[in-house]
Design goal:
heterodimer, A: 261 residues, mainly alpha, 11 helices, B: 351 residues, alpha+beta, OB fold (Dihydrolipoamide Acetyltransferase, E2P), six-stranded mixed sheet, 20 strands, elongated
């Protein structure tokens, strides 16, 4: 029993200690990443604020993340509604194919997309990154949204139709409010997935770097490493906050509609 | 044409027909029940009337207007769902007012309309309750109010009392009937509970295997079922195999095996039976009488149910015991049974 507890602690330390290195060294007053720490500073964070190239990359990542989140959630919403609300013969097959990109190695996905764009004469761009990210984000959106659709019965939408609302108004008065927690969770998860993604962005972004691609580029300059750590710490904090928020919103919604049946 | 006319409606979901060429007529202001075991097609028929399913063939006409292909939101019907389908994100007031949006009523008028309906279903003062703070009976009332406030021509009720416990169910039956009388709307009830159908409705359609077996007022269904399924489904009944020997103007004579040669009124014989046909002779347990002579049997089981006793009598040469319901149980093990001819019913044997 005691050794099991020890194992659990060791495991958690193994998982999270490396992550803590980032914030620790981002406040360390030295260009070299080595113990002992040489003093507290926020100059690396000040450097971030002044770095316009970094901010441009951040802007690109936000654009790609927002577009990906909106598109994949919309597509996921339509697909989730289709598989949960209609008698569909090939529902499981369709779901399988939608989820397949998750199991294809990203490097293969990235390479084939790059070749495809080249063959079609299309330029590498942020739009291409969004398309690539859709492939891996739609399955996430779909999973969250299907669970949400299954949380309330089709009879609620039927009741709305019965009470005189057409399908469009039924969507806005019943489906959308009940789906809202799922939609918010899906938006946050897909945004984070896109924002953190490196491989597809690296292959498809062309000259416009997203933040992870920009960070990769900075690693060639050892003196800029502490600033990258500072940036990493900021991303880490925001990511964790968003994921926690997404989970919280999802649970909140689940509790509220337990009575829906 | 009748108020609700269902004309040769059929529906299948890729397999055998769930609803098989059903025709029905319901009058304006009637309390009509569709009764049958689960899987008999009654709910599918109701959903076709509401517009949630489209019939494969046939027509549905409500108050002279053909509704067969009209989507649910444009039909003059409202439904009380089996699950009640109360909107969980809206409170009681907004649930009831949900279907009134299109009327664009001034706020005060909307409020008075909803409040009047709350009074009808006796939920005064609960308008700001959240959906998850309601009991089963209250949810049922909200569902009823939400449908009735739209003043539908036809109210559809899908097993509306099924989710309630026995006492609440009995109280709601009385109330449902009172509300129907008050608002005067035509009610179409779907249920598998024969007691509920018989006690609430003006007329009942008994369904089985996608077909309507018999449409009649409750008393007629009980006293003059037209086939074995209906007789069996509505209350308990004893069957005897028999062969028709003679059909006179007012009497029928049959050879009923262990019961011997029996003569009973012609009116008790189902339609379409000819001389020489094999039939089922049926009699309700409460019509079987104890006598000094007659068919001898052994008392095999007795259940005391307050005012009446339910007894089982074993007869030599018959595997099924005969069910008897009587005010007084006879003393002793050996009894004699008599079957008053006026209570004997002749039904097609079905084979």
């Amino acid at each position: 029993m005691k050794s099991l507890r020890l194992y659990a602690f060791a495991y958690l330390a193994f998982l999270y200690a490396p992550v803590l290195v980032l914030p620790i060294f981002s406040f360390n007053n030295s260009e070299f990443i080595a113990f002992p720490l040489s003093g507290f500073t926020i100059r690396w964070y000040e450097g971030l604020v002044a770095d316009t190239a970094m901010q441009h990359a951040l802007g690109n990542s936000l654009k790609v993340g927002l577009a990906t989140a909106l598109l994949s959630t919309m597509l996921g919403l339509a697909a989730a509604r289709a598989v949960t609300r209609y008698r569909m013969k090939a529902a499981s097959v369709a779901l399988g194919f939608i989820s397949l990109p998750l199991f294809i190695p990203d490097i293969v996905l990235a390479l084939s997309l790059m070749l495809l764009l080249g063959a079609g004469g299309l330029p590498l761009s942020l739009a291409a990154v969004v398309l690539g990210h859709l492939l891996i984000c739609v399955p996430f959106a779909l999973t969250v949204l299907i669970a949400r659709f299954e949380g309330f019965g089709r009879d609620l939408e039927e009741a709305s139709a019965d009470l005189g609302e057409d399908p469009w108004m039924t969507f806005w008065r019943v489906t959308f409010p009940l789906m809202l927690p799922g939609i918010v969770a899906s938006l946050l998860l897909t945004f984070i997935t896109s924002f953190d993604e490196f491989l597809l962005a690296f292959f498809l972004s062309g000259t416009e770097a997203t933040l992870p691609v920009y960070i990769w580029g900075q690693l060639r300059f050892p003196e800029r490493l502490p600033m990258v750590l500072a940036l990493g710490s900021v991303i880490l904090t925001v990511s964790v906050a968003l994921v926690v928020l997404a989970e919280h919103v999802r649970n909140l919604g689940a509790q509220k509609t337990m009575v829906g049946a | 044409m009748s108020f609700l006319a269902i004309r040769a409606v059929s529906k299948s979901f890729g397999g055998p027909p769930v609803v098989d060429t059903v025709s029905l007529d319901v009058d304006r202001g009637e309390f009509f029940a569709l009764l049958g075991p689960s899987g008999c097609g009654k709910t599918t028929l109701l959903r076709m009337i509401a517009g949630f399913e489209a019939p494969d063939s046939g027509a549905i006409v409500i108050d002279g207007e053909t509704m067969t292909r009209v989507p649910p939101h444009l039909r003059p019907t409202n439904m009380v769902f089996q699950s009640y389908a109360i909107f969980p994100h809206l409170n009681v007031f907004d649930n009831i007012a949900y279907g009134l949006r299109k009327l664009k009523l001034p706020k005060a008028e909307l409020r008075s309309k909803v409040e009047a309906m709350l009074a009808t279903v006796r939920l005064e003062g609960l308008e700001s309750r959240a959906a998850n703070q309601l009991s089963g009976g209250q949810r049922q009332r909200v569902a009823l109010a939400r449908a009735l406030v739209r003043e539908p021509k036809l109210l559809l009720l899908d097993e509306p009392l099924g989710a309630l416990d026995k006492r609440l169910r009995e109280a709601m039956q009385v109330e449902l009937r009172a509300i129907q009388r008050k608002v005067g709307v035509t009610f179409l009830l779907v249920t598998h509970d024969q007691e509920e159908a018989l006690s609430l409705s003006d007329r009942v359609a008994v369904m089985g295997h996608g077909k309507v077996l018999q449409v009649a007022p409750p008393r007629t269904l009980y006293e003059r079922p037209n086939c074995r399924e209906v007789a069996d489904f509505i209350g308990e009944i004893n069957f005897f195999h028999a062969t028709v020997r003679e059909i006179a103007d007012d009497r029928v004579t049959v050879n009923a095996g262990i019961m011997g040669i029996v003569t009973f009124p012609r009116a008790n014989l189902a339609d379409g039976i000819k001389k020489g046909d094999h039939i089922l002779l049926a009699i309700r347990p409460e019509h079987v009488a104890f006598a000094d002579t007659g068919m001898a049997g052994e008392l095999s089981a007795a259940t005391f149910l307050g005012e009446r006793n339910h007894l089982q009598v074993r007869i030599a040469g018959r595997s099924e015991p005969i069910a008897v319901s009587a005010a007084n149980a006879p003393a002793g093990q050996t009894v004699h049974l008599s079957f008053p001819p006026q209570f004997l019913i002749g039904l097609p044997s079905g084979d």
